[in-house]
Amino acid sequence: MKSYEVNFDGLVGPTHNYGGLSYGNVASQSNSQQSSNPKEAALQGLAKMKALMDMGFQQGVLAPQERPDVAALRRLGFAGSDAQVIQRAAKEAMPLLVASCSASSMWVANAATVSPSADTADGRVHFTAANLNCKYHRSIEHPTTSRVLGAMFADQQHFAHHAALPAVAQFGDEGAANHTRFCRAYGEAGVEFFVFGRSAFDSRYPSPQKYPARQTLEASRAVARLHGLSEEGVVYAQQNPAVIDQGVFHNDVIAVGNGEVLFYHEDAFLDTDRMLAELGDKIAKVGGKFQPVCVPRSAVTVDDAVRSYLFNSQLLSRADGSMLLIVPEECRGNERVWNYLQGLTGSGGVIREVKVFDLKQSMQNGGGPACLRLRVALNETELAAVNPGVIMTAPLYESLTQWVERHYRDRMTENDLADPQLLLECRSALDELTQILKLGAVYPFQIN
Predict the structure, then answer these.
(1) 332-382: per-residue pLDDT in tens?
(2) Secondary-structure percent of the chain, ordered helix, strand, coil, rounded to 5
(3) Which pLDDT score is estimated for 321?
(4) What's the maximum distance between 2 C-alpha atoms anywhere in the chain?
(5) Distance between CA atoms of 398 and 393, rounded to whole angstroms?
(6) How far apart (Å, rounded) are the C-alpha atoms in residues 5 and 8?
(7) DSSP assignment, residue 354?
(8) What is the pTM of this model?
(9) Which of 390, 377, 259 is nearest to 315 (CA)?
(10) pLDDT one-digit tens code per residue, 139-153
(11) How far is CA 63 from its chain centroid?
(12) Nearest 10 degrees: CA dihedral of 289, 290, 291, 296?
């Protein structure tokens, strides 16, 4: 039976703005308060999805959240009609309104952690929605994320869904941005690689001093237990606290893996040699041959990696066994990074080609190609059980492009978020989107 890695890309929401909400994310903070272009952002994301589909890769779509999140503002004491809630929040607590309007759900690498059926004890694909409790604007996402994933992967014979972990600091969970799976083939048993920034209960693990470590060891272990993963099929590794303090807020800003390949920066991890040895041993036991590709600091600094998002790239397996690397335009704009990539693809190694995409709208808010996609390994039977409305096709691409053109603004500033009309525009757009994607009622305004 054939198996595939399906990339489900987040569709950028209508309120895409540069609120500067993510402390520790250099791009998010440095572009705060600039004018954004939601229409361009959504079309850039759709263009990437279409391009990968045209290359022969399996591609899906994950819907955005309802924003502004009026219910979240009501929980914080703002009352009255929806319009009054928005106007009062704008007057009394603009940062809370900005947070309630964040389109950060576009980065669906943070939506959940996914374990394929070949790894799990019950032979189903398991999903655990990430609580994202390090940042308020992201912590309000997981209820809708769970409903959307449930509508996409509804067949309980093949799919199992878990609620987000307790929303406390000890179980901070950022989803697939800190999770990678290695395997010889997608349908075979693999090794799941969980990267954490700190331990909540074990003081032996050092913590960063400047920026928060968002993923805890305890959260990673809890997800592995929920998914029924075996001890032989899991490796835990700690991020280097020093690189977190340089802006590496998730592991996918400093490393990316796929198949048998780990592409990583020399300074990405603590105790790197031990971690590589454990990965190599466990991958060998499931029939694979581990291929680490280390980028030396002498060629690319951590600062280069953060500014270019070299590692927030998509590493995709091609039919001939080689790898294709999907990078943002910012990599071509960094001389050291681009020189390194030219040498990498010309060396005869496993990464043979680099393709560049313009994702400026997402990049300016701190998310590159890898942030925009949630990877789900599925066999043929499981893929057939996925809601077909969310699988990218040429007709769906045309429908979504036209939908964006109809509903999205081409300019968004902080002042625009205070316009009650924006909520009506967003709800109208999302109501139509659920029909296009055949999701049913997944948004609070559709349910309540």
Answers:
(1) 999 999 999 999 998 788 999 999 998 887 777 678 899 999 999 999 999
(2) 40, 20, 40
(3) 87
(4) 64
(5) 9
(6) 10
(7) E
(8) 0.95
(9) 259
(10) 999 999 999 999 999
(11) 13
(12) -160
What CA–CA distance (Å, rounded) separates 5 from 271?
30
Looking at 55-187, list the stretches that DSSP marks H as alpha helix, in order from N- to C-terminal side: 70-75, 82-92, 94-100, 136-139, 142-152
pLDDT tens by residue, 294-339: 999 999 999 999 999 999 999 999 988 899 999 999 999 999 999 9
Place of tokens 């991890």: 269
253 CA to centre of own chain: 11
Residues annotated as catalytic (active site), given as ranges: 174, 250, 371
- Assign 347 to helix, strand or coil: coil
**Pick from 445, 331, 429, 431: which is nearest to 42 by CA?**
429
- C-alpha to C-alpha distances, 349 to 261, 262, 321, 323, 331, nearest whole angstrom: 11, 13, 11, 9, 20
DSSP 195-217: EESB-SS-TTS---SSS----BH
For residues 278 and 225, what is the distance between their CA atoms, to the nearest angstrom?
20
Helix (H, G, I), strand (E, B) or coil at 258: strand
DSSP code of residue 299: T
